[in-house]
Amino acid sequence: MSTSQTTPTTENPAPAPAVDPRLLVRKSGVAGYAEEFRRKIRSGELGAMPVVLGLILIAIIFQSVTGHFLQADNLTNITKWIAGYGLISVGVVFVLLLGEIDLSLGSVAGTCAAITSVLAVRQGLNEWLAILLALLAAAAMGALHGFFFARIGVPAFVVTLAGMLAWSGLQDFVLGKLGTVNNINDGVVAHLDNYFLGDGDILFAWLLAVLAIGGFLAAQLLTARRRTAAGLPARAIGEIALRTGGLAVVALVGAYTLNQDSGLPLPLVVLVGVVALTDFVLRRTSYGRQIFAVGGGIEAARRAGINVARVRISVFMISATLAGLGGLFIASQQGSADKLLGGGNVLMSAIAAAVIGGTSLFGGRGSTWSALLGMLVIQSITTGLDMVHAAQAIQYMITGAVLLAAVVLDSVSRRTQKSAGRG
């Protein structure tokens, strides 16, 4: 009796071990970039490329159809309109990184706006204090969701579905029989949507562009220095200069375009600031790495010494707080807080933006920049279809098709990564 042992042969070669892409040294020159691009395509690392290409395609199509889609006033309006939904979508990204979902964020946004308006308008409380109390209430709602999910073990879907119903009822109760509270004229909430930094001074748009370019360059150089000190491959100075130059073109053209209208809108500053801050937290802090670890595998995270319950509760608190802030911007856009705020397609648009932008529904992969990019896609489609007077039903169908395409791309990407030994 003998046992056979399979050995690698030329007919049946052993599979190549997976290699961490961070340890790969890219060849210099154009050939190196081409090789790296092919590797990323084969391994499913598409990043933001599909979204950026989609935005370019959307702009080309609607500009050719309308002739004025890329005008400064229209682009300025797009950057203002994405703020409220975009902030909610940033919160969605945090939850999706855990591989979970939060169905209550629309109701939390509406409740936060209702609390702010009632305290400031009906009760005469200082508006800044009213906003602070409302955001604290939103954080408490998220903590409650996180507690039942992380400590009691109730599925996040069920907990947040219950929260959606409960906070919607609280929103109705707070607003009372009238159901609508108009914003204070020239108040804080009223100015969230229509305020331009420096009262339209063109300096502020240029300043933001320069700060973005400088911050990106500094971060790239610091990362390269740290990797070099640790003995790891790092980007060459030429590549850093090329990447910074690309960002500079986008930022400076954006600043020039905004200055052709009214300057730098406050909603865009707040959204970009929140996205940049949360991206720093996720990628540059131990807490952010813990979020990715929990989303990548709960048991592995526990064995690594991570307090999984604490991370989960804090993530739901962050998402609810950002939803509350987004609700204030939506109230500013529509001029009031009412019983419908946060309903309709608010939650679905926020989730769709995060997924379209590249955040995985399966957890462990994504970026808060995906919320910004995804919301730009959705708002650009909506604005373009409005300009050609398309029915709302058409808008929903197209947005749904784009969302489905993003989810399919995510699924295919994960499958490709697994076959490449990185799943």
TrEMBL record:
Keywords: Cell inner membrane, Cell membrane, Membrane, Sugar transport, Transmembrane, Transmembrane helix, Transport. The keyword ATP-binding does not apply. It is a multi-pass membrane protein. It is found in: Cell membrane. The chain crosses the membrane at residues 46-66, 78-98, 105-122, 128-145, 152-170, 202-224, 236-258, 264-282, 311-331, 343-362, 369-388, 394-412. It comes from the Bacteria. InterPro entries: ABC_transp_permease (IPR001851). Part of the binding-protein-dependent transport system for D-xylose. Probably responsible for the translocation of the substrate across the membrane. This is Xylose transport system permease protein XylH. It comes from Kitasatospora misakiensis. The lineage of its organism: Bacteria, Bacillati, Actinomycetota, Actinomycetes, Kitasatosporales.
